[in-house]
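Quick one:
INPUT:
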């Protein structure tokens, strides 16, 4: 691709039509050039991957579909880094350089952006150091391990003027965009309740303390989290079910499905409606005996002045049909329901109401990556920008703070912080960093 201004103009305008951004403009509409630093030179972005597990590699593959060169790969597990480098070399014809320490990768001047696909407890430091190194980011969800990290990361990215797309690709998926457009048009009526859910079948079994595989630097993998021995079932992929490294199903799928509920209750664009209080209950009721520490059964309620939001996870879907979804209930009992694969509008008596056509080109992950690349080029904020996604992430952590505190936790939407003391001593609020790792301070 050439670096001509003509190409830049074409990309900016074709992005608007190809992604439906200009036509529908319901997400990412409140974008601003002033908030992000300009690129020093106009050129095709070169990216590096930090965290070459399942999602990091899936994302990288899509970047390569968009003809983006991948020059570097970093992972603390040499086998994952090597497998990713093999895949990348096969697809783009050039082998990326391999790193174990993300700080070394970030020293490279030729990288414009990084894809961050590390586990949740390892999002904050690569993100903040990438912002300081003036890299843009495609950062996986949930943005952080806890509320304090989310606030710090959003502040760091704002201060350094970065373009950051969080991996909540439902914001670039036609069914979700159309359903939200309908809800926010007011056609359904005033929303009095939103419900979000995901079934939970995760059972990690009983692990045995053992030596980690020789390719894995396990101490580095644990990083700023509390050191716990390697057990086989508490590391790759399964870290999501442990409070030490993640936020359970609420941080895993909740951040996708609750995000849609918060956008539907919001004012439009990327605005998410922030609650005044969270309370919930649950436990390890379905699988009491495995090593997982996060609940497999959870029912949370978020309080708003004129509405209520329910988040539910257990083995049975709320609507009895779809293992994930978000539903809006209007004052007249009519509903909009959206899940991965479709959406519906129904009357109180369950009769279908005709749906408007879905937007063109909103094909999920592919459109989400395209939106990021266009924003890197035109210096606008992407649909899942970090300022907006920090709020959704914080709401998910607020739910978990209430679960861990065992009672209601109040929230101050202006300060984006817990109000009062309840919830503040939980891991969902803030963790102690294990030396030598420290979290930098940002306002
Ligand atoms: N957007 C989505 O739909 C979606 C889907 C799945 C996962 N995710 C997110 O993607 C992220 C990764 O999830 P996953 O399932 O791929 O996990 P994974 O365990 O398969 O991969 C994580 C990789 O990061 C590596 N890693 C850990 N610490 C590192 C460090 N300090 N530096 C470099 N590499 C490090 C691990 O060795 C591993 O290879 C998570 O945040 C998860 O929530 C998003």
């Amino acid at each position: 691709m050439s670096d001509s201004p003509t190409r830049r103009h074409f990309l900016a305008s074709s992005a608007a039509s190809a992604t439906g951004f200009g036509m529908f403009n319901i997400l990412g509409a409140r974008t601003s050039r002033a908030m992000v630093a300009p690129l020093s030179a106009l050129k095709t972005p070169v990216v590096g991957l930090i965290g070459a597990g399942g999602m990091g590699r899936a994302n990288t593959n899509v970047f390569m579909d968009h003809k983006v060169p991948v020059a570097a790969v970093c992972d603390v597990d040499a086998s994952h880094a090597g497998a990713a480098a093999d895949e990348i070399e096969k697809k783009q014809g050039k082998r990326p350089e391999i790193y174990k320490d993300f700080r070394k990768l970030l020293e490279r001047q030729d990288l414009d952006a990084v894809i961050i696909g590390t586990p949740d407890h390892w999002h904050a430091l690569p993100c903040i150091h990438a912002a300081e190194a003036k890299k843009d980011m495609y950062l996986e969800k949930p943005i952080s391990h806890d509320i304090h990290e989310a606030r710090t990361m959003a502040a760091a990215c704002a201060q350094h003027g970065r373009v950051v797309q969080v991996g909540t690709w439902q914001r670039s998926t036609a069914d979700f965009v159309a359903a939200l457009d309908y809800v926010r048009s007011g056609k359904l009526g005033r929303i009095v309740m939103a419900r979000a859910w995901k079934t939970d079948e995760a059972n990690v079994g009983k692990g045995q303390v053992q030596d980690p595989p020789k390719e894995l630097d396990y101490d580095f993998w644990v990083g700023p989290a509390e050191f716990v021995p390697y057990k086989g079932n508490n590391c790759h992929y399964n870290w999501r079910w442990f409070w030490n490294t993640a936020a359970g199903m609420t941080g895993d799928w909740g951040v996708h499905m609750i995000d849609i509920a918060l956008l539907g209750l919001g004012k439009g664009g990327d605005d998410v409606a922030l609650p005044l209080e969270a309370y919930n209950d649950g436990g390890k009721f379905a699988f009491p005996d495995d090593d997982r520490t996060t609940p497999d059964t959870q029912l949370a309620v978020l309080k708003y002045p004129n509405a209520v939001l329910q988040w539910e996870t257990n083995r049975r879907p709320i609507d009895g049909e779809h293992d994930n979804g978000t539903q809006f209930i209007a004052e007249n009992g009519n509903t909009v329901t959206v899940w991965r694969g479709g959406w519906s509008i129904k009357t109180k008596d369950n009769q279908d109401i005709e749906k408007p056509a879905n937007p063109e080109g909103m094909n999920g992950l592919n459109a989400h990556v395209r939106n990021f690349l266009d924003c890197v080029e035109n210096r606008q904020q992407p649909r899942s920008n970090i300022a907006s996604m920090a709020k959704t992430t914080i709401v998910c952590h607020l739910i978990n703070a209430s679960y861990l505190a065992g009672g209601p936790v109040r929230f101050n939407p202006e300060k984006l912080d817990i109000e009062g003391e309840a919830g503040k001593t939980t891991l969902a609020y803030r963790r102690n960093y294990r030396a030598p790792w420290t979290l930098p301070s940002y306002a």
